[in-house]
Design goal:
- It is built from 18 helices and 32 strands.
- Helices cover 18% and strands 22% of the residues.
Length: 831
């Protein structure tokens, strides 16, 4: 039987002969306790049986008498489900959860459960409650514990644990309690904090955020309250990160520490100059402290206002962390760090000079204003001058028309060239995945990649186990293909867009792999008899692809919606990712990332999501996140609070730049979708950010990203724009082209990906052969450094192939993906 620590790590538990601990627990010097599976131990639905267990628990259990020990009454209400570890306490068996965490590996940040693509555990009945949760219906409430009569446990099913800080000792430090059940407490009472598991709205450096921390060198479990002055990452070469913290000295409003009316003295202060005397500025390196962000859930507040009602769940009335992130102190807190996160990132800024050529999207030259009295007519692209909109419908139509004709700030560089591909697929063909292709990983054969006579690349589909066997062999370029083909289940041929021969009439220096793919039923007009057009037929896929090279600005902004856009442009990334950035990412989310597995598709490598999630994406409620919540951000047990702000800032920095491509390419979405995440239907820009390393996945279609409910809305709006009197013929045609695409393909959220190749050692030169496969379109892209890819997530099959490396010392490929189009209020903005 595996111990709890090895079970959480999902590793084999190796016991040492003659020892009562496994190798891992010995190396970390932590307690080795056996893990007892909870599978199948759901609470009984029989009301009478549940009431009998609750009554028996109230009679048998006795509260703990020692400070820091918490006998969790609620665990006995469902003892068959929550019996990870038991101990004899006052003659009764109970779940003992107050163990001191003596090691950082003992889940110092174990505050929430893993989230998969599953629905939240549904609760059969709604409840009504007041601020104290004293009139909850359909949820069992038990007596408080540890002397806190206002605290009650709820029978809401939940997983994971959270940290609660309520007791302040004579040294002015908090005693942490580990809570494994949903609970409720009164708004009035001792100053109390709960760990936050919705780490969003992080400003650069997290200035003014409320935290609890403890020195790693201290053996006791006493935690200090602090306010972040600044978190500094990569401030110096020798130190990767520092925390500048205003540590509370422990001064109370009353000399009687045992008084229930006593609270920290700094809460009476109105300005930071008054509160500063109660704090001292300390500086720690990340390796020196345990650290977590918090929310206040009870007691006196800074400005005398009430505790936010959002720290109470509307369904069960239980306590939860604030969905908008950790508490922000309502004062101006001085910043101590000399270098901000943005400044440290901009040390590796990418510009046109570094790239050696102009970016694809440039700022057009401003037109000179016409002099008064000029008889020049308005350009054909301008809207007609109609101002007699009187009715509300006319005013709404006029405002939409003004928005539709408004030009973006950047335009495509006319001096460059692009490749236009027309694929003969329809929506059913593009989104259909055969059963033989599911759960398979596709790897290219080197022979097809090296073959310069044909742009077709052959991909062999292998299972995950077969690919692991392949990696264990001593492979060379000569024997790789034979070993791969012998293990394949299926194979497919796709057209490599970047291997298509460039015509002699096209300047090679003007073509930087800018490619757009359109479906044949909603594409720009082309002459298939033109001799310059190259055509390729894929027999296996029954797809014909026509290719032609044109000026980069051709068909741009005309309303044609591409199914795929690829280009190489470093300035759209903003910065160059360095190995030191990868180290901080791994410290924050772990080697496997926040999502170690997905139900939608198989993958390998690091995968992390960030962004507000819907109610269906939370697998189970937790002590810090109540049932049916939709505003919380993706989170996991092993998330490091210290390093997460850097990762969040890095993701927003990168995503805010690459998302420009989707804004310029999908005009109908940028004009008709709401710009805020506060919309009730939650169909908007900038929904989810994704960060990956060494990542590849199987073929899949993200059906949840289709916006079928908005099809009618888009069609109605585009029909109105195509016939409105407030637009010129040119802009009406743009609306008609977009309407044609929506009619054939529907509406789907766009996804923009940015790829960078980061060598682990600067002296290593490695050739990477990896493709982004669009099997539904019959094409693929060779992934190189600073590549950007845009596609509608729910309208075709995306997949990245297995990467082949020329040398054994492999680099890490970093991918940042941004769904939707631009920043909004619910995701921190990088300015």
């Amino acid at each position: 039987m595996a111990c709890i620590a090895c079970h959480k790590r999902k590793k084999k538990c190796v016991h040492v002969e003659g020892q009562d601990k496994c190798k891992y627990c010995i190396s970390k010097d932590i307690e080795c306790r056996p893990h007892i599976s909870q599978q199948g131990r759901r609470p009984q639905t029989n009301v009478k049986d549940r009431q009998q267990r609750q009554t028996q628990a109230r009679v048998n259990l006795q509260p703990s008498r020692e400070m820091g020990e918490v006998a969790d009454y609620s665990s006995m209400l469902m003892a068959d489900q929550y019996s990870q570890s038991t101990t004899c306490h006052n003659g009764n068996s109970g779940d003992y959860v107050s163990d001191v965490w003596s090691s950082s590996e003992a889940s110092c940040y174990d505050t929430s459960s893993d989230y998969e693509d599953e629905s939240v555990c549904s609760l059969s009945s709604e409840c009504s409650h007041d601020d104290h949760g004293s009139h909850l219906k359909h949820y069992t409430i038990t007596n408080g514990y540890n002397g806190d009569k206002t605290r009650t446990s709820l029978s809401t099913y939940s997983t994971g644990s959270c940290n609660l800080y309520t007791s302040i000792n004579k040294r002015g430090k908090f005693v942490r309690e580990t809570i494994r059940r949903r609970f409720t407490i009164s708004y009035k009472g001792p100053f109390s904090l709960i760990s936050n598991s919705s780490l969003s709205y992080m400003k650069d450096g997290c200035n003014g955020r409320s935290i609890m921390f403890r020195l790693r060198s201290e053996t006791n479990d006493e935690w200090k309250y602090g306010i972040v002055s600044s978190l500094s990452y990569l401030e110096t070469v020798d130190v990767d990160s520092r925390a500048y913290i205003f540590e509370w000295k422990g001064t109370m409003s009353s000399d009687h520490m045992s008084s229930d009316d006593s609270y920290p003295a700094f809460l009476d202060c109105k300005t930071w100059n008054d509160a500063r005397v109660h704090f001292k500025l300390v500086k720690y390196q990340s390796k020196d402290i345990f650290f977590e962000f918090t929310n206040q859930v009870r007691g006196v507040t800074f400005d005398g206002s009430s505790i936010s009602h959002r720290t109470r769940n509307e369904t069960d009335g239980g306590v939860q962390c604030h969905p908008d992130g950790p508490d922000m102190i309502p004062m101006v807190i001085p910043i101590s760090a000399k270098v901000s996160t943005t400044q440290s990132l901009l040390k590796n800024k990418l510009t046109d000079e570094v790239m050696g050529r102009r970016s694809l999207y440039i700022h057009p030259k401003k037109k000179k204003k016409r002099k008064r009295g000029s008889r020049k007519t308005a350009a054909k692209h301008n809207a007609t001058n109609v101002t007699n909109a009187k009715t509300p419908d006319d005013k709404e139509e006029l405002e939409l028309a003004k928005s539709w004709q408004r030009s973006p700030r950047r335009a495509v560089d006319k001096s460059q060239k692009k490749l236009v591909l027309i694929s003969s697929v329809n929506k059913v063909q593009a989104t259909n995945i055969s059963e033989s292709d599911k759960k398979l990983f596709f790897a290219p054969t080197i022979a097809s990649v090296r073959d310069q006579s044909s742009p077709l690349v052959t991909f062999s589909g292998v299972t995950k186990q077969k690919y692991k066997e392949l990696c264990e062999l001593e492979l060379t370029e000569e024997n790789y293909d034979a070993n791969l083909v012998s293990r394949q289940s299926v194979n497919h041929q796709l057209l490599d867009c970047y291997a298509i021969e460039l015509p002699t009439s096209v300047d090679a220096n003007a073509y930087h792999h800018y490619a757009t793919v359109y479906p044949s039923n909603a594409c720009p007009p082309i002459n298939t008899n033109d001799e310059s057009i190259q055509s390729y037929t894929l027999p296996d896929e029954s797809i014909t692809v026509h290719c032609m090279f044109v000026d980069a600005d051709k068909f741009e902004g005309e309303g044609y919606v591409p199914l795929s856009v690829g280009l190489h442009d470093s300035t759209l990334h903003g910065i160059s990712i360095q190995p030191k950035h990868l180290q901080l990412i791994n410290k924050a989310v772990g080697v496997g990332g926040l999502f170690t597995k997905r139900n939608r598709s198989s993958h390998s490598g690091q995968l992390s999501f960030v962004g507000p999630r819907s109610t269906k994406s939370c697998s189970q409620p937790s002590p810090t996140e109540g049932p049916n919540e939709s505003g919380y951000w993706y989170y996991r047990k092993r998330l490091s609070h210290f390093f997460w702000p850097f990762v969040l800032h890095l993701m927003m920095f990168l995503a805010s730049r690459i998302s420009l491509v989707s804004y310029y390419q999908y005009i109908h979405l940028s004009k008709l979708l709401p710009l805020s995440n506060d919309d009730p239907i939650r169909q908007d820009f900038c929904d989810i950010g994704i960060l990956t390393q060494d990542y590849d996945s199987s073929l899949h279609v993200d059906q949840n990203d289709t916006l079928d409910k908005l099809d009618t809305y888009f069609k109605d709006e585009l029909k109105m724009l195509s016939t409105t009197k407030y637009l010129s013929t040119y802009h009406q045609q743009r609306a008609t082209h977009s309407l044609n695409h929506v009619t054939h393909w529907g509406v789907s959220t766009p996804t923009t990906c940015g790829y960078q190749v980061v060598a682990k050692k600067e002296s290593i030169e490695v050739e990477i052969i990896q493709y982004f496969c669009c099997k539904g379109l019959g094409i693929c892209y060779r992934i190189n450094n600073y590549w950007v890819h845009l596609f509608p997530r729910g309208q075709r099959m995306p997949s990245s192939s297995k990467a082949l490396h020329e040398q054994t010392n492999l680099p890490s490929s970093v991918t940042v993906t941004r769904r939707h189009l631009q920043n909004n209020g619910n995701i921190p903005q990088s300015k």
